[in-house]
Amino acid sequence: MKPVTPATPPQEITHKRILKLAVPLVLSNATVPILGAVDLGVVGQMGEAAPIGAVGLGAIILTTVFWIFGFLRMGTVGLVGQAAGAEDQAEVSIILTRALLIALAAGFTLILLQPLIFAAALSMSHASTEVETLAYSYLSIRIWTAPAAISIYSLTGWLVAMERTSGVFWVQLVMNSVNILLSVLFVLWLDMGVQGVAIGTVIAELIGAGLALYLCRDAFKHPDWRKWVQVFDRAKLIRMALLNTDILIRSALLMVIFSSFVFLGTRFGDVTLASNEVLVQFMYITAYAMDGFAFAAETLIARAMGRGDASRLRRSALMTGFWGAVVCVTTALAFAIFGPWLIDLMAKSPEVQAEARIYLPWMVVAPLIGCVAWMMDGIFIGATQSRDMRNMMIVSFIVYWIAVWLFLPLWGNHGLWAALLVSFLARGITLSLRYPALEAAAQNHKQV
Fold first, then answer.
1. pLDDT at 36 over 50
2. In this model, does residue 7 exceed pLDDT 60?
3. pLDDT (0 to 100) of residue 152
4. What is the pLDDT of residues 47-102, one digit of tens each?
5. Cβ distance 331 to 285 under 8 Å?
6. CB crowding 370-384: b at 16 or more within 10 Å, else e
C-alpha cells in the first residue's frame, strides 16, 4: 500500500505557530505549583502540623498513582496528530474514544483496589499515626475522582494534537482556580479540615474533566467515534497498547532515576538532602518552560509523520529545538545570576542555603546538558517511535547506575549530581543517533 498523500496543503511551520502552541502550555504549567502551595497554605492556617503532612503525603501518593497513566496523554498526541496529518477525521475521533475507555477502566479499577493501594503506599511512610490517619481520609475521598483525573490526560492529549493548546490552558486555569476557591471555602470558612481540601479537589477535577470534554466536542461530531467495530479494531488496539506500554516503561525508569537521586542523597545528611531538594525545584522550573515546546514538537512531528513528509518533520524538529535551546540557555543564565537569591527564598536555614550554593553550578549546567534529551522526547513521542524511546531510556538507565557506582564513592554528593546529568547526556546522545530513522520512517509511513 502506498502512503496516503493528504489533499489539503499543509499549514506552514513558522515561529509564530510554534509560540502559539507552546505559550499557553507554559502558562498552564505555571499554575501547577501555585495550587500545591495554596492547598498547603490553607491547611497550614489550622495551626497544626499533622494536616499539612497529611495533605502533602496524600497528594504525593495520588499524583504518583495517577501519573502512571500519563502515557495516555503522550500516546494520544502522537496517534491523533498523525491521523490529523493524514486527514483521517474518523480516526481522529476514534482514537479519543479508545483513550477515554482506557482512562475510565483504569480509574474505576483504582477505586476498586483503593484499600490495597493505600495500604501499600502508607506502609512505606514513616509519618505519625495521626498524619497517616488524616492522609487515609484524604485519599479515600480523592480516589473517587480517578476516572475524571485520568481522562484529563486523554482529553488534553487530544487538544494538544489538534493544536488547541489554549484549551489546555483554560482547563488547567479553571480547575486550579475552582480548587483554590473551594479549599478556602471548605477549610477556612466551613472548618472541614483535610476532608475539605480533598472534596474541593474532587469537585475541581470533575469540572476540569467536564470542560475538557466540552472543548473536545468536535471529536464527537464524527459518527465513527461510537462505531464500536472500528473502535475495537484489533490491529489498532495492539498498536496503541504497544505504544503506551513502551512509554510507561520509559517513564517508570525515569521515575526510578529521580527517586533514587533523592534516596541516595539521604546518606549525606539532612542538610545536603534539603539542599538537593531545593535545587531540584530549579529543574522543575526548567521542565515547566520546556514542556510547552516539547509538546509543540509532539504535535508538529506527528502531523508531519501522518503526511509522510520527512522534510516537514526535519523543519519541525529544528524549529522547536531552537526554541527549546532558547529556554534552556535562558534558564541556565537565570540560575547563574539569580540562583543564590532563589535558594534564599526557598530555604531559610543558613546551613541549607550555604550547602545549596555549593551544588548550584550543577543546576546551572543541567538545562544545557538536558536540553537535547527533553526535546528529543517530544520529537519521538510525536513520531510514535516509542520502542526507540524505551530502548534509549534503558541504555541511559544503565549508564546512570554505572555513573553512580563510579562517581558516588569518589565525589560524594557532587558525584550524585554528575551521575544524574550523565543520564541526561546519555539519553540525548542515544536518541539523537536514532533521529535519522524518524525521517526514514516518515518517508515510508503508511496509513493502514
1. yes
2. no
3. 94
4. 666 676 677 777 778 877 888 888 888 889 989 998 888 888 888 999 999 999 99
5. yes
6. bbbbbbbbbbbbbbb
Taking alpha carbons only, the member of 101, 51, 3 closest to residue 308 is 3
Rounded-to-integer distance, Cα 103 and Cα 152, Å: 9
Q: What is the percentage of the chain residues whose pLDDT exceeds 90?
A: 46
Quote the Cα angle for 87-169-95, to 5°.
Answer: 30
Q: What is the maximal distance between C-alpha atoms in the chain? A: 68
The answer to whether 379 touches 299, Cβ cutoff 8 Å, is no
Of 272, 267, 260, nearest in space to 356 by CA: 272
Q: How many CB atoms lie within 10 A of CB 70?
A: 15
Average pLDDT rounded to a whole number, residues 112-131: 80
Distance in angstroms (rounded) separating the CA atoms of residues 161 and 84? 8
At residue 126, the pLDDT reads 63
Give the span between the Cα atoms of 150 and 155, in whole angstroms. Answer: 9
* Contact (CB, 8 A) for 380 and 389: yes
Average pLDDT over residues 317-323: 95
Nearest-angstrom CA–CA distance, 377 and 70: 14
Closest CA to 243 of 74, 370, 401: 74
- Nearest one of 228, 204, 53 to 127, comparing CA atoms: 53
Contacts of 323-326 with C-beta under 8 Å, sequence gap 24+, read 323/15, 323/18, 323/19, 323/22, 323/293, 323/296, 324/290, 324/293, 324/294, 324/297, 324/371, 324/374, 324/375, 325/371, 325/375
The pLDDT of residue 212:
96
pLDDT number for residue 374: 92
